[in-house]
Amino acid sequence: MSSMTDQERVLLQDFLQQLSRIRGIDKDTEADVMIAKAFAPQPDAPYLVVQRALLLEQALNAAKAEIAELRNQQV
């Protein structure tokens, strides 16, 4: 078991705060049922989904930074 770094803790806190501020979204009923069924037998599902979302966000930010760097090199 590993501990979070300070940076990881901040990223997680920011992500969870963003989630808690979202209200009144339109949900696809079929998707909502499928998600609920998948989460029900898997107690670690919320953790795994948040972890994956954070990893994908980091990958996206790294790709954006690389694209910006490549564009700056062309100028």
| Largest β sheet strand count, sense and barrel closure | none
The best one-word shape is extended
Strand residue content: under 5%
First-last Cα distance: 46 Å
- Helices, by number, come to 3
Low-confidence spans: pLDDT under 50, at least 5 residues?
A: none
User: What oligomeric arrangement do these chains adopt?
Assistant: single chain
Percentage of residues assigned to helices: over 70%
Mean pLDDT value: 95
Structural class: mainly alpha
Total strands: 0
SSE order: HHH
Spatial extent as radius of gyration: 17 Å
Keywords:
75 residues; mainly alpha; 3 helices
Please characterize this protein's 3D structure:
0% of the residues are buried. The mean pLDDT is 95. The protein has 75 residues and is mainly α. It has 3 helices and no strands. It has helices at 6-21, 29-39, 45-74. The chain is extended. Helices cover 76% and strands 0% of the residues.
Topology summary:
Elements: H1 6-21, H2 29-39, H3 45-74
